[in-house]
Amino acid sequence: MKNFLAAAAVVLSASTQLYAQTIPANTISDIVWGDTQTVSFVVDKLPVDGPFKAVTFTKDLHTYNGVFRKVIANRFTGEFNTTEKDVGSDLSCETNVDATAAVCSLDMRLVNGPLYVIDMTLNDNNLYDVTSTTKYFDMRSGQEVEKTEVLLKDASLSLPIPLHAN
Q1: pTM of the model
Q2: 74 part of a folded domain
Q3: Any domain includes 166
Q4: β-bridge pairing 38-44 and 101-107
Protein backbone atom coordinates (compact mmCIF):
# COMPACT_ATOMS: atom_id res chain seq x y z
CA MET A 1 0.00 0.00 0.00
CA LYS A 2 2.93 2.34 0.74
CA ASN A 3 4.27 1.89 -2.81
CA PHE A 4 0.81 2.51 -4.22
CA LEU A 5 0.51 5.83 -2.36
CA ALA A 6 3.95 6.91 -3.53
CA ALA A 7 3.04 6.02 -7.12
CA ALA A 8 -0.23 7.94 -6.77
CA ALA A 9 1.60 11.06 -5.62
CA VAL A 10 4.05 10.86 -8.53
CA VAL A 11 1.36 10.31 -11.16
CA LEU A 12 -0.91 13.06 -9.83
CA SER A 13 1.88 15.58 -9.56
CA ALA A 14 3.10 14.72 -13.06
CA SER A 15 -0.29 14.64 -14.78
CA THR A 16 -2.08 17.36 -12.84
CA GLN A 17 -1.18 20.41 -10.83
CA LEU A 18 -0.96 19.98 -7.09
CA TYR A 19 -4.15 21.03 -5.35
CA ALA A 20 -3.63 21.54 -1.66
CA GLN A 21 -4.80 25.03 -0.88
CA THR A 22 -8.55 24.86 -0.26
CA ILE A 23 -10.22 28.24 -0.34
CA PRO A 24 -13.20 29.21 1.85
CA ALA A 25 -16.38 29.31 -0.22
CA ASN A 26 -17.13 32.97 0.46
CA THR A 27 -14.00 34.14 -1.37
CA ILE A 28 -14.89 32.77 -4.82
CA SER A 29 -15.38 36.19 -6.40
CA ASP A 30 -11.99 37.48 -5.25
CA ILE A 31 -10.05 34.43 -6.42
CA VAL A 32 -11.76 32.98 -9.46
CA TRP A 33 -12.10 36.08 -11.55
CA GLY A 34 -9.18 38.09 -10.14
CA ASP A 35 -5.49 37.76 -10.98
CA THR A 36 -5.35 33.99 -10.50
CA GLN A 37 -4.40 32.21 -13.72
CA THR A 38 -5.74 28.74 -12.82
CA VAL A 39 -8.66 27.78 -10.58
CA SER A 40 -10.01 24.29 -9.96
CA PHE A 41 -13.02 22.67 -8.39
CA VAL A 42 -11.79 19.33 -7.04
CA VAL A 43 -13.20 16.08 -5.66
CA ASP A 44 -10.30 13.84 -4.60
CA LYS A 45 -11.18 10.32 -3.43
CA LEU A 46 -7.92 8.65 -4.47
CA PRO A 47 -6.59 6.12 -3.76
CA VAL A 48 -9.27 4.26 -1.80
CA ASP A 49 -12.79 5.56 -2.23
CA GLY A 50 -12.92 6.53 -5.89
CA PRO A 51 -11.50 8.79 -8.57
CA PHE A 52 -9.86 12.18 -8.55
CA LYS A 53 -12.03 14.63 -10.51
CA ALA A 54 -11.40 18.28 -11.28
CA VAL A 55 -12.81 21.04 -13.43
CA THR A 56 -10.00 23.50 -14.09
CA PHE A 57 -10.39 26.99 -15.52
CA THR A 58 -7.30 28.57 -17.06
CA LYS A 59 -7.18 32.26 -17.90
CA ASP A 60 -6.35 33.01 -21.54
CA LEU A 61 -5.98 36.80 -21.86
CA HIS A 62 -9.56 37.94 -21.08
CA THR A 63 -11.45 34.64 -21.23
CA TYR A 64 -11.20 31.20 -19.62
CA ASN A 65 -10.78 27.66 -20.93
CA GLY A 66 -12.32 24.80 -18.95
CA VAL A 67 -11.14 21.18 -18.76
CA PHE A 68 -12.68 18.24 -16.88
CA ARG A 69 -10.08 15.73 -15.68
CA LYS A 70 -10.73 12.31 -14.12
CA VAL A 71 -8.06 9.98 -12.72
CA ILE A 72 -8.96 6.42 -11.75
CA ALA A 73 -6.54 4.21 -9.83
CA ASN A 74 -6.35 0.45 -10.17
CA ARG A 75 -5.52 -0.65 -6.63
CA PHE A 76 -4.30 -4.06 -7.79
CA THR A 77 -1.85 -2.99 -10.49
CA GLY A 78 -0.99 0.50 -9.21
CA GLU A 79 -1.76 1.96 -12.64
CA PHE A 80 -3.69 5.16 -13.28
CA ASN A 81 -6.08 5.98 -16.10
CA THR A 82 -6.48 9.68 -16.85
CA THR A 83 -9.17 11.13 -19.10
CA GLU A 84 -9.69 14.76 -20.02
CA LYS A 85 -12.38 16.59 -21.93
CA ASP A 86 -12.82 20.23 -22.81
CA VAL A 87 -15.87 21.78 -21.20
CA GLY A 88 -15.51 25.13 -22.93
CA SER A 89 -13.16 27.64 -24.53
CA ASP A 90 -13.30 31.44 -24.63
CA LEU A 91 -15.67 31.42 -21.64
CA SER A 92 -16.82 34.58 -19.89
CA CYS A 93 -17.07 34.04 -16.14
CA GLU A 94 -18.83 35.92 -13.37
CA THR A 95 -19.95 35.44 -9.78
CA ASN A 96 -23.34 36.28 -8.32
CA VAL A 97 -23.71 39.11 -5.80
CA ASP A 98 -23.42 37.02 -2.61
CA ALA A 99 -20.57 34.88 -4.07
CA THR A 100 -22.43 31.58 -3.61
CA ALA A 101 -22.36 30.71 -7.30
CA ALA A 102 -20.35 31.35 -10.43
CA VAL A 103 -21.19 30.90 -14.09
CA CYS A 104 -18.92 30.53 -17.10
CA SER A 105 -20.59 30.69 -20.50
CA LEU A 106 -20.16 31.15 -24.22
CA ASP A 107 -23.18 31.97 -26.38
CA MET A 108 -22.74 31.12 -30.07
CA ARG A 109 -26.47 30.90 -30.90
CA LEU A 110 -26.37 34.02 -33.04
CA VAL A 111 -24.21 32.14 -35.56
CA ASN A 112 -26.16 28.84 -35.36
CA GLY A 113 -23.93 27.53 -32.61
CA PRO A 114 -24.66 26.30 -29.11
CA LEU A 115 -24.88 28.00 -25.73
CA TYR A 116 -22.38 26.54 -23.27
CA VAL A 117 -22.96 27.16 -19.55
CA ILE A 118 -20.95 25.82 -16.61
CA ASP A 119 -22.52 26.48 -13.20
CA MET A 120 -20.58 26.28 -9.94
CA THR A 121 -23.12 26.46 -7.10
CA LEU A 122 -22.51 26.38 -3.35
CA ASN A 123 -24.52 23.53 -1.82
CA ASP A 124 -25.79 22.81 1.72
CA ASN A 125 -22.45 21.15 2.62
CA ASN A 126 -20.61 24.43 1.90
CA LEU A 127 -19.00 22.77 -1.14
CA TYR A 128 -19.63 23.27 -4.86
CA ASP A 129 -21.71 21.35 -7.38
CA VAL A 130 -20.48 21.85 -10.95
CA THR A 131 -22.84 21.26 -13.90
CA SER A 132 -22.41 21.71 -17.62
CA THR A 133 -25.35 22.64 -19.86
CA THR A 134 -25.37 22.85 -23.65
CA LYS A 135 -28.31 24.32 -25.56
CA TYR A 136 -28.68 24.34 -29.31
CA PHE A 137 -31.30 24.41 -32.03
CA ASP A 138 -31.70 21.11 -33.88
CA MET A 139 -32.28 22.05 -37.53
CA ARG A 140 -33.69 18.61 -38.40
CA SER A 141 -36.38 18.48 -35.73
CA GLY A 142 -36.92 22.23 -35.42
CA GLN A 143 -36.63 21.94 -31.63
CA GLU A 144 -34.31 23.48 -29.08
CA VAL A 145 -32.23 20.78 -27.36
CA GLU A 146 -30.79 21.07 -23.84
CA LYS A 147 -28.23 18.64 -22.41
CA THR A 148 -27.17 18.92 -18.77
CA GLU A 149 -24.40 16.89 -17.14
CA VAL A 150 -23.32 16.92 -13.49
CA LEU A 151 -19.53 17.10 -13.57
CA LEU A 152 -18.83 17.31 -9.82
CA LYS A 153 -20.74 17.10 -6.54
CA ASP A 154 -19.31 18.39 -3.25
CA ALA A 155 -16.18 19.87 -4.83
CA SER A 156 -13.67 22.11 -3.08
CA LEU A 157 -12.45 25.33 -4.64
CA SER A 158 -8.67 24.92 -4.93
CA LEU A 159 -5.64 26.73 -6.24
CA PRO A 160 -2.29 25.30 -7.34
CA ILE A 161 0.50 25.44 -4.79
CA PRO A 162 2.84 28.26 -5.83
CA LEU A 163 6.34 26.98 -6.55
CA HIS A 164 9.15 29.43 -5.84
CA ALA A 165 12.72 29.12 -7.04
CA ASN A 166 15.29 29.66 -4.29
Answers
A1: 0.73
A2: yes
A3: no
A4: unpaired
